[in-house]
Amino acid sequence: MDVNRNDGSLLQLGDRIIFDDHYGTVRYIGEIASTKDSWIGVEWDDSSRGKHNGTHEGKQYFSTNHPTGGSFVRPKKVKMGVSFYTAFQDRYGEEQGEEAGVITSELFVLDNNKKKTVVEMVGAKSVNKKQSQLNSLVEVVVRDMSVYGVGPHSSELRTHGCSIAELDMAHSLLPSWSKVAAITECLPGLTSLNVSENNLVLPSNPTELESAFPGLKVLFLNRITYSWQQILECSLMFPLLEQLHVCFNGITNLSKPEGHLQNLTLINLESNSVQTWSQVLHLSHLPKLESLIVSDNQIDTITFPDVGCGETTQHFQALKYLCINHNNIAEWSSINELNKMKCLKELKMIKNPLLDTAVPETVRQLIVAKISGLEHCNRTKVTKEERRGAEIDYLKRFGQVWIKCGGSQDENKNQPSSDFINEHPRYQELVKVYGPPENSEMQQKEKSLKDSLITVTITSPYDPASGSKQKKIPGTMTVQKLKSLIQKLFKWYDRELQLSYETKKMKHVEVEFDNDLRSIGFYSIEPGDTILVRW
I want to staple 298 with a disulfide (CB 3.0 to 4.6 A). Which of 228, 233, 275, 321 is the partner? Predict the structure, then answer.
């Protein structure tokens, strides 16, 4: 017994449906013993939504992966989705019956059960007309619009979709790559595709669908629960692919992409479960890879074991950009290893334990000094002046250790130990560039962030009832961030704060924090001083 969608197309086994905001896959269509009319047997994405494994009164109508992952539902109660062209028209097509240049809307008034016009939007029709020019749209977003496939409108789509270059069909009812391909083959100009958050069955022979994606260069497969091997299989459909986003897929293991993804310049593996850098190194065989994003994984060490200290690795020959935010990098040896890379120009690595080993400015200086070719660090450009200052400071900072380990200002006696060289592989290079540090220039070991905190009292003469609070704050904190901290502490969110401080050395003498962008350390604040808050 057939079940039809509103557009006349037949619901088929393997199609996707929505019932009470729950997504599922159709496993059975037909009658059930001792009942009337048709039923749909559904295997739910969330197995806790189901009640059985496809069995009713001892008869197996379909099977599920989970023993309670299935249900029977009536066709009229489920959402079966819409064709891509229908969603396309609904979002971008011209609406009818508008007054020229004006759209009116109505508000239901509860006190008299009448509707009255309350809003006029002048010019909305011209905006809608611009959107209605379907055959000139370049970017199309039908995310969350329950698209199930091309439906009975492929000829219309071929007519009006020829200019579409970027398409977002995330979180839809697309059941398979064959259904995706039926849409994209009508869009000859497509270069970017987002099918994230879909449950797409892979074709048995992916290369058979290659003709449906002739110019595709950017692909988003986020939250699609593919393994890395399935992603490689999938990639055979996209021989020209340059950017691949596979975030939130629970990927733990990677493998060499031999014969796959050879044109890839960017891969985004954010928010997966990759635990070791050795797994990441499998991607280093991609010959054109320039950008690598592995944020929010579980990587704790970076190493290039193919070469020794001070040498250039053969891994990631083209890589210029690395983003490794929100991982577990805790040792400076990982930064030393990054200097082995041939082309690395930009690094992002916020929210790693390493950044807590010293005050932020010191951490940044050390990163810049240790990676010779770095041009951007955590989104900020590394200027020539900053690099020179960071490298000279690096020489001074570790000068005493260098001397103790065999270093010398006398070139003929300068023979630091291998342990020192492994820990500071650029030090000898910097000595040649700037000369060895003088005894008077050598610095003691940098204080930890904990040691650099300043204990102050915060109070307001305008609100004595709120009392005062003691707080430990870093001298590197900007005045603007201090204001935000105080607003949270005292819940003074609705007030424009003005700050000054009174030093314990000179009572009744206040120093104003007159620049929000400066650090509080600039104003020579000391432990025991009192910050005064006004508005």
Answer: 275
Name the residue among 290, 230, 295 with its Cα closest to residue 269. Answer: 295
Tell me what pLDDT residue 60 has. 94
Residues 6+ apart with CB under 8 A from 259: none
Structural domains in the chain? 16-77 (2.30.30.190), 389-441 (no CATH), 453-534 (3.10.20.90)
**Which residue shows structure tokens 């603007």?**
480
216-270 confidence digits (pLDDT tens): 999 999 999 999 999 999 999 999 999 999 999 999 999 999 999 999 999 999 9
The Cα angle at residue 434 between residues 431 and 438, in degrees rounded to 5: 75
Q: Is the pTM higher than 0.90?
A: no
What's the DSSP call for residue 443? Answer: P
DSSP assignment string, 372-412: TT--EETTEE--HHHHHHHHHHHHHHTHHHHHHTT--SSTT
Tell me the C-alpha distance between 166 and 187, whole Å: 10
SS3 533: strand
Give 304's Cβ-side CA count (13 Å radius).
21
Collapsing DSSP to helix, strand or coil, 160 comes out as: helix
Residue 337 CA to residue 371 CA, distance in Å, equals 9
Residue 517 Rama label (left phi>0; alpha psi -120 to 50; beta):
alpha
Partners of residue 4 on adjacent β-strands: 10
Contact by Cβ (8 Å): 500, 494: no
Contact 178, 205 (CB under 8 A): no
Helix, strand, coil shares, percent, the chain, to 5: 25, 20, 50
Q: Give the number of other Cβ atoms within 10 Å of residue 136's Cβ.
A: 12
Within 13 Å of residue 437, how many CA atoms lie on the same side as its CB?
A: 22
Q: And the tokens for 107? A: 């508000």
Closest among 501, 498, 525 to 511, alpha carbons compared: 501
Is residue 206 within 8 Å of residue 230, measured between CB atoms? no
Question: Cβ distance 43 to 70 under 8 Å?
Answer: yes
pLDDT digit string, tens, across residues 165-224: 999 999 999 999 999 999 999 999 999 999 999 999 999 999 999 999 999 999 999 999
Using 50 as the pLDDT threshold, list the residues of the chain that sit under it: 97-122, 127, 130-131, 445-446
Q: At what angle do helices 427-434 and 384-397 cross, to 10 degrees?
A: 110
